[in-house]
Hints:
Low-confidence stretches of chain B: 1-6, 138-149, 201-252
Structural class of chain B: alpha+beta
Largest sheet of chain B: 4 strands, antiparallel
Structural class of chain A: alpha+beta
Shape of chain A: elongated
Distance between the termini of chain B: 89 Å
Strand order of the largest sheet of chain B: 1-2-3-4
Number of strands of chain A: 3
Radius of gyration of chain B: 34 Å
Shape of chain B: elongated
Mean pLDDT of chain A: 89
Number of strands of chain B: 4
Helix content of chain A: 40-55%
Largest sheet of chain A: 3 strands, antiparallel
Strand content of chain B: 5-15%
Oligomer: heterodimer
Radius of gyration of chain A: 16 Å
Number of helices of chain B: 7
Amino acid sequence: MPTPVFLGEFEQFVLLSLLRPGEAAAVLDLRDRMEELADRSISRGALYRTLDRLEGKGWVAWEVDEEDVPERGGRPRRRFHVTGEGIAVLRASRDTLRELWAGLEGVLR
Amino acid sequence: MIPRPTSGSPDPPGLLVRLLERTLPRGVAGVSMVGDLLEEWHRREPGPRRALWFLVASSGPVARYTAVRVAARMRGLARAGADALRRSLRNPGQTGLTVLALGLGIAAPATMFSVVSGLIGEVELEDPDRVVHVGRRFTSRVIGIAPFHWLWPGLRDVETLDVVGLYSRDQVDLGGGEGYAQRLEVALVTPGVFQAFGTDAAPAARSGPRTPEAKGPRWCSHGSSGAAGSVGTGRFWGARCVWTGLPGPWWG
């Protein structure tokens, strides 16, 4: 039996939002997307910290957007995407949750 | 949801942006965070609410990364302290030697100054912040006096100086009472030095023999001997204080 994988709720939310169809997301776009999906406000600090943590684990990566945005005063923009390892972790987490849910449909109805 | 871009709006306060750039991590990650904040600033409607938003939004990362840096520095200090303690315990001989050297280094000057202080008494300055030192180093004993001739007229006319005292270091050989000579490290000072210190004269000057024929400022030679057994006896403080009249046009 594979080792159960438990992802934090917010980590999972960030990873799933990044996987939504579309190009690799900049932080502001990702935050827009998450607020739209969850219909709640997303803390900027929590998002940056989570992205840093996920990057440290190797589950997300980023590249610099070459587009020049005058409002940014020449400062680069990072675009994030989920790595193959991140996708594998999400899949394992989903399997773990499915096993936990199995047989409880009648109780939770 | 973040509002759509607003064109033609001014930039956020430069001071806050600079503070962010100094605080956030160096490299693309930190710089892009500043860029994200600027981009969001331009997406928001201009007005005081936007200024308040930027203040709050920028203070969060500043506080967080300042705390991170301080914590990292504290960890570094703690590691260095622990490492030093470990090394000290590993090599107690060297540690003892170091402590001894440090102790002597601190105690020797303290002892020396307390002896000197005991000999000449506590010199309490009336206005310590007003005492200034002007000087040059002369190597020749003969010339050691002569340069005052050049300094004196200039110093005497400086209106910002209330009192001018001159001094010169010297050595004096005194015949010892037990058949050997003592070489004393002395300082030749004018009464102005004591006036500058807010005291009328040093103990040596008060008790020393005077030469009535001396004119103008007189030199008092006093000091402590480097010979063992002489320091602190006070034998030559007073009785062997040499007063010398220095005739010369520059002393007035």
